């Protein structure tokens, strides 16, 4: 049996939103939203929260999560995920980003078939956006893919240039074959990765392919306090 684990990297010291995992969305901490979404995936055998902060660890344990305290020196969430993955018997590791409170379990499950079948080494999600007025939003990461659905490039800039119908927004959760994840974390940050501030470009620059799975609409990721308000407004509208 292929063992699949989900790891949620969570740090307190976000530049744009310090203490973000502890921020409340509809009265519930963001980290708990993400944890419950990961638990609802049908194909994860374990869900672990990886953090270097005792406040996040204490809160996470209070709602029953398994927590691993990791190094405080990791440059990215992926490195934090890899530290946990190294110690686990698993073939596939899902990096469940801690800033995706509106994630749903079925989205995680959608990542897995190409990894299980061996079609892909890395997989991620994307969704079409038809409102072209937001294509210049630097917090919306765009992706273009080839005819088989493999990522060609990711950017914060408009991509493709002069899109006339829609663009694909990247949804930042990733599935990895464990060996590929550990290899990537030992590679030097790449030129495009540093320029765009997008760590997935390291995989592309070193020649790894990322299979993109399309879902119908993007999630609302929380990078700033303003995003938290947007997510709360969305949930309130959904309740009506």
The oligomeric status of these chains comes to single chain
Judged by helices, strands and strand pairing, the structural class is: alpha/beta
CATH fold group = Spore Coat Polysaccharide Biosynthesis Protein SpsA, Chain A
The amount of beta strand, in percent, is 15-25%
What is the CA-CA span between the terminal residues? 43 Å
Provide a count of the helices: 9
Q: How many strand segments?
A: 11
State the low-pLDDT regions, or none: none
Helix content: 25-40%
Order of helices and strands: EEEHEHEHEHHEEEEHHHEH
Basic shape: globular
**What characterizes the major β-sheet?**
9 strands, mixed
CATH architecture: Alpha-Beta Complex
Assign the CATH superfamily.
Spore Coat Polysaccharide Biosynthesis Protein SpsA, Chain A
Q: What is the averaged pLDDT score?
A: 93
Compute the gyration radius: what is it?
17 Å
For the record, the count of structural domains works out to 1
Kindly describe this structure:
With 240 residues, the protein is an alpha/beta fold. The chain has a single domain (4-239), classed as Spore Coat Polysaccharide Biosynthesis Protein SpsA, Chain A (Alpha-Beta Complex). Helix content is 31%, strand content 24%. The chain contains nine helices and eleven strands. It has helices at 30-39, 54-62, 77-85, 105-111, 113-117, 178-184, 191-196, 200-205, 225-239, and strands at residues 4-10, 24-25, 28-29, 46-51, 66-69, 92-95, 122-129, 142-145, 151-155, 167-177, 210-214. The strands form two sheets. Strands 1, 4, 5, 6, 7, 8, 9, 10 and 11 form a nine-stranded mixed beta sheet that branches. A two-stranded antiparallel sheet has the order 2-3. α2 links the parallel β4 and β5 (66-69). The longest helix has 15 residues, at 225-239. It starts with a strand and ends with a helix.
